Amino acid sequence: MNHKARDREKRENIALERIIRLMEFADKEARGGNLEQAGRLVELARKINTKTKTRIPKELKNRYCKHCYCYLMPGKTSKTRINSRQKRVEVTCLKCSRQMYYSTKKRGC
Ligand SMILES: [Zn+2]
User: Fold this and answer.
1) Per-residue pLDDT for 109 more than 80?
2) Which domains can be identified in the chain, with CATH numbers?
3) pLDDT cut 90: percent of the chain above it
4) Which of 28, 33, 38, 60 is the S-S candidate for 71 at Cβ 3.0 to 4.6 Å?
5) Buried b vs exposed e over 50-88: b needs ≥16 C-beta within 10 Å?
6) How many angstroms separate the alpha carbon of residue 28 from the centre of ligand 1?
7) From CA 48, how far away is CA 14, in angstroms rounded?
8) From the CA of 13, how far away is ligand 1's center (Å)?
9) Alpha helix ranges (H) inside 1-109
10) Using H for helix, E for strand and C for coil, what is the string for 20-37?
11) According to the model, what pLDDT value does residue 24 have?
Protein backbone atom coordinates (compact mmCIF):
# COMPACT_ATOMS: atom_id res chain seq x y z
CA MET A 1 0.00 0.00 0.00
CA ASN A 2 1.44 3.40 -0.87
CA HIS A 3 1.45 6.39 1.39
CA LYS A 4 -1.45 8.17 -0.25
CA ALA A 5 -3.81 5.23 0.09
CA ARG A 6 -2.91 4.82 3.73
CA ASP A 7 -3.49 8.51 4.38
CA ARG A 8 -6.87 8.30 2.70
CA GLU A 9 -7.90 5.37 4.80
CA LYS A 10 -6.80 7.15 7.95
CA ARG A 11 -8.75 10.24 6.99
CA GLU A 12 -11.83 8.17 6.30
CA ASN A 13 -11.63 6.50 9.68
CA ILE A 14 -11.35 9.82 11.45
CA ALA A 15 -14.25 11.20 9.44
CA LEU A 16 -16.40 8.18 10.21
CA GLU A 17 -15.65 8.46 13.90
CA ARG A 18 -16.68 12.10 13.80
CA ILE A 19 -19.89 11.28 11.97
CA ILE A 20 -20.79 8.60 14.51
CA ARG A 21 -20.11 10.97 17.38
CA LEU A 22 -22.18 13.73 15.78
CA MET A 23 -25.08 11.34 15.29
CA GLU A 24 -24.83 10.29 18.94
CA PHE A 25 -24.99 13.94 19.97
CA ALA A 26 -27.94 14.47 17.64
CA ASP A 27 -29.70 11.55 19.28
CA LYS A 28 -29.12 13.02 22.73
CA GLU A 29 -30.36 16.44 21.66
CA ALA A 30 -33.44 14.97 20.01
CA ARG A 31 -34.25 12.96 23.12
CA GLY A 32 -33.90 16.11 25.18
CA GLY A 33 -36.44 17.80 22.92
CA ASN A 34 -33.93 19.95 21.11
CA LEU A 35 -34.75 18.88 17.58
CA GLU A 36 -33.37 21.97 15.92
CA GLN A 37 -29.95 21.31 17.38
CA ALA A 38 -30.22 17.66 16.39
CA GLY A 39 -30.92 18.71 12.81
CA ARG A 40 -27.87 20.95 12.85
CA LEU A 41 -25.69 18.08 14.02
CA VAL A 42 -27.03 15.84 11.26
CA GLU A 43 -26.17 18.54 8.76
CA LEU A 44 -22.63 18.70 10.11
CA ALA A 45 -22.30 14.94 9.84
CA ARG A 46 -23.59 15.11 6.27
CA LYS A 47 -21.06 17.80 5.39
CA ILE A 48 -18.19 15.66 6.63
CA ASN A 49 -19.68 12.77 4.70
CA THR A 50 -19.86 14.60 1.37
CA LYS A 51 -16.45 16.18 1.82
CA THR A 52 -14.65 12.98 2.67
CA LYS A 53 -16.93 10.59 0.74
CA THR A 54 -17.14 8.33 3.74
CA ARG A 55 -19.67 5.57 3.69
CA ILE A 56 -22.23 6.07 6.42
CA PRO A 57 -23.29 2.82 8.13
CA LYS A 58 -26.85 1.76 7.38
CA GLU A 59 -27.97 2.10 10.99
CA LEU A 60 -27.00 5.75 10.92
CA LYS A 61 -28.56 6.41 7.54
CA ASN A 62 -31.94 5.39 8.84
CA ARG A 63 -31.72 8.01 11.54
CA TYR A 64 -32.18 11.06 9.38
CA CYS A 65 -34.46 12.09 6.55
CA LYS A 66 -33.00 11.43 3.12
CA HIS A 67 -34.81 14.45 1.73
CA CYS A 68 -34.50 17.26 4.25
CA TYR A 69 -31.89 15.73 6.61
CA CYS A 70 -33.93 16.31 9.70
CA TYR A 71 -33.29 13.93 12.58
CA LEU A 72 -35.89 11.18 12.61
CA MET A 73 -37.47 10.35 15.90
CA PRO A 74 -40.46 8.03 15.79
CA GLY A 75 -43.51 9.78 17.18
CA LYS A 76 -41.86 13.17 17.07
CA THR A 77 -40.36 13.91 13.71
CA SER A 78 -41.26 10.70 11.94
CA LYS A 79 -43.96 8.11 11.63
CA THR A 80 -42.99 4.49 11.19
CA ARG A 81 -45.31 1.93 9.68
CA ILE A 82 -44.60 -1.66 8.91
CA ASN A 83 -46.06 -2.79 5.65
CA SER A 84 -46.03 -6.55 6.01
CA ARG A 85 -47.47 -7.22 2.58
CA GLN A 86 -44.65 -5.36 0.85
CA LYS A 87 -42.20 -6.51 3.52
CA ARG A 88 -40.92 -3.05 4.15
CA VAL A 89 -40.84 -0.35 6.76
CA GLU A 90 -42.34 2.94 5.68
CA VAL A 91 -41.00 5.99 7.40
CA THR A 92 -42.70 9.32 6.90
CA CYS A 93 -40.77 12.45 7.76
CA LEU A 94 -43.14 14.81 9.52
CA LYS A 95 -41.11 17.83 8.54
CA CYS A 96 -41.17 17.47 4.77
CA SER A 97 -43.93 14.79 4.61
CA ARG A 98 -41.91 12.61 2.30
CA GLN A 99 -41.50 8.87 2.67
CA MET A 100 -38.59 6.49 2.83
CA TYR A 101 -38.70 2.74 2.60
CA TYR A 102 -36.53 0.14 4.19
CA SER A 103 -36.67 -3.47 3.32
CA THR A 104 -37.38 -5.88 6.16
CA LYS A 105 -36.67 -8.95 4.08
CA LYS A 106 -33.23 -9.67 5.49
CA ARG A 107 -34.28 -9.43 9.11
CA GLY A 108 -35.84 -12.78 9.75
CA CYS A 109 -37.89 -12.99 12.91
ZN1 LIG B 1 -37.75 15.23 5.72
Assistant:
1) no
2) 3-103 (1.20.5.420)
3) 73
4) 38
5) eebebebeeebebbbbeeebbbbbeeebbeeeeeeeeeb
6) 19
7) 10
8) 28
9) 3-31, 35-52, 58-61
10) HHHHHHHHHHHHCCCHHH
11) 96
